[in-house]
Amino acid sequence: MEQRWIPSGRPTRRTRPDASAVMGVLFALPALVSSLVVLAVVATLIWPGNNVAVGAVLVVWLLSGALTFVPSVEQALARAMFDMRRPTRHELDRMAPLWAQVCAAAGVDPARFTLWVDQSRELNAFAAGGRTVAVTGRALELPPRALEAILAHELGHHLSGHSRVSLLAWWYELPARGSILLVGLAVRAVLWVGDVFGRFGSASGVLASVLLALVLLFGLVVLNPWLLLMPLLNPLMAWSSRLGEYRADATAARLGYGPALVDVLSAWLSAERGGRRPLRARMLASHPATADRIRRLRTAR
């Protein structure tokens, strides 16, 4: 179903990274450095002594981040990261007019974005990359104004640059995460061999496998100094993500969806089970407590 965009008369809003997006970039730098170290080691093994080739590999990798700005690549990556599909005709007939209303309120062209359906059974929605907006089937069952409020929140993520930074950070972390996966598999294989030696009573074989596993783990840390910072970075990244959620809520409120978003969050709050989360869980949570989001939205009225 083709939707035509009718300008609202408001100036077009452009993506302006907020503090959460800027912090996301800063917190992703250690992982980027680790990825560059991994690529440099691999390139050196392939072209020993050829510094030009090693430098070219690193430059090409840094420039490859531009691929995430290509719509077809973004859609492929979003599909790889999330279990989502294109909406059916009926689902698009429901989503597209509401999305057009939200974009009109913000002064942006809805055609800049692609609409998807997240196949999760939960009531949820998310923004990814620079153009992707997805909602679950349960979200599509909400009343129109409630669904608009959720879409306005996701548009807030796009307008603040949160989703673009997240996709770019994910892309640049791939070599580092790949090395962690490969070394983890190698350590398991070495320990398995040591266990086999142990069953035959070879203490030296067991000791050798344990020492080799430790060497592999040490090499992993050398390749990925990012790992040493994870105990500190994880709470900071979660805090940054929570700030982004507050910012997206505030954007939805400025577009006139504050009361509707409060109603949606209140329904979520009543459906939540359990008491106050432990401190560690609160520190590592990517989303603020629902009650806190409601409180902020009501205060901002």
Strand content: 5-15%
Instruction: Indicate the mean pLDDT.
Output: 86
SS class: mainly alpha
Strand order of the largest sheet: 1-2-4-3
Shape verdict: elongated
For the record, the count of structural domains works out to 2
Spans of at least 5 consecutive residues whose pLDDT stays below 50 are 1-12
Helix content: over 70%
Q: H/E element string?
A: HHHEHEEEHHHHHHHH
Instruction: Give the radius of gyration.
Output: 23 Å
Biggest sheet details? 4 strands, mixed
- Count of helical regions: 12
Roughly how many Å apart are the termini?
36 Å
Beta-strand segment tally: 4
Keywords: Cell membrane, Hydrolase, Membrane, Metal-binding, Metalloprotease, Protease, Transmembrane, Transmembrane helix, Zinc
InterPro entries: HtpX_protease (IPR050083), Peptidase_M48 (IPR001915)
Cofactor: Zn(2+)
Family: Belongs to the peptidase M48 family.
List the main descriptive attributes of the protein structure presented here.
12 helices, 4-stranded mixed beta sheet, disordered N terminus, single chain, 4 strands, mainly alpha, 301 residues
Q: Overview of this structure, please?
A:
This protein has 2 domains: 225 residues, no CATH class; 50 residues. Helices cover 70% and strands 5% of the residues. It is elongated and about 70 Å long. The protein is built from 12 helices and 4 strands; from the N terminus they run H-H-H-E-H-E-E-E-H-H-H-H-H-H-H-H. By secondary structure, it is mainly α. The protein has a 4-stranded mixed sheet, sandwiched between helices. It starts with 18 loop residues before the first helix and ends with a helix. Helix 1 packs antiparallel against helix 2.
